Amino acid sequence: MMKFVFAILSLWLFACNCDSEQKTNGHADSLDTIECSREGDSLSVNSVPAYAQKIINAYPDFRIRYTDGCLVFTDGTRITCDDGKTKSFIEKLDNCDVEDMFSMTYDTTATTPLYLHDCGRGRCEELFKKMYGSTEIEARENLVYVDWFGQKIPFTKVNGASEQLKKVASELAKLPRYRKYLTNASSFYWRKVRGANRQSAHSYGIAIDINTTYSNYWLWSNPKCSETDKIQYTNRIPIEIVKVFEKHGFIWGGKWYHYDTMHFEYRPEFFID
Questions:
Q1: Whole-prediction pTM value?
Q2: By the number of CB atoms within 10 A of the CB, which of 19, 47, 53, 99 ranks highest?
């Protein structure tokens, strides 16, 4: 009799143990699911579009995040990255979103721009006004003066732009043979782009035009041409000057099909790998 009771008790304990293991394993499966979900979340972080990540990395002071197709600032401002519209060349200039800015690549090795290749000429106004000022008064509040070959050049301090321009000036000062190209410069000027309704980069204090005496501009040479006409490229700015600017995050208007060889603009996002 005792053996029978002992056998029944053993079977009951075994059954309880199996049930406990099943519950434990079930809990473990649940934890695995949670971990997968967390891993999935991290994958969603990694799925940030490359162009959005370049903005985030290029402008760390703003601590921008990417959420649901938007660049999100710490104050809650959301800027849509891609409006989903198929645009012509002109539309990408006049109604540029963040994604449109990166529809072309900035090639530091290029010598003659390809037809309609104007990387950096398009700017998402909502983004730039958020960073540098949405009005002339706001933009002016961010200006500091940079010593520039006998001049005091107003330039924005936002995103370290003025500090980078100082570095450019310091390096170019070691190349006195190029001084004539650098004098009589101009920078901040709140205005629209000539012939367009979009804001000039000079409005934000992120652009400098060097000596126009030695510069070429596509409309000066082709006053009757439209944006989509074919034009002849010309330039007189030494490439050594260009390389110094590019080293410190400035793109050059001479890399544009619609060339503007006097123009240098602080756009570090185009130098982010």
A1: 0.83
A2: 99
Between CA 128 and CA 133 the distance in angstroms is 7
CA atoms within 13 A on the CB side of 65: 10
For residues 101 and 55, what is the distance between their CA atoms, to the nearest angstrom?
Answer: 11
Closest-CA residue to 260 (of 178, 180, 202, 204):
202
Question: Domain spans of the chain?
Answer: 1-47, 85-271
SS3 content of the chain, % helix, strand, coil (to 5): 50, 15, 40
Mean pLDDT per 10-residue interval, the chain, length 273 residues: 44 46 39 30 64 98 97 98 96 97 96 96 98 98 98 98 98 98 98 91 98 97 95 97 98 98 98 93
Show contacts of 6-14: CB within 8 Å, 24+ apart: none
What does each C-alpha distance from 149 to 3, 85, 146 come to in angstroms? Answer: 105, 45, 10
- Burial label for 197, CB within 10 Å (0-12, 13-18, 19+), is exposed
Contact 175, 240 (CB under 8 A): yes
Instruction: Report the alpha-carbon distance of residue 165 to residue 157 in Å, rounded.
Output: 10
What is the arrangement of strands in the sheet containing 250-252, beginning at the earlier edge strand? Answer: 207-209, 263-266, 250-252
**Tell me, what amino acid is at 70?**
C
Tell me how far the alpha carbon of residue 57 is from its chain's centroid: 8
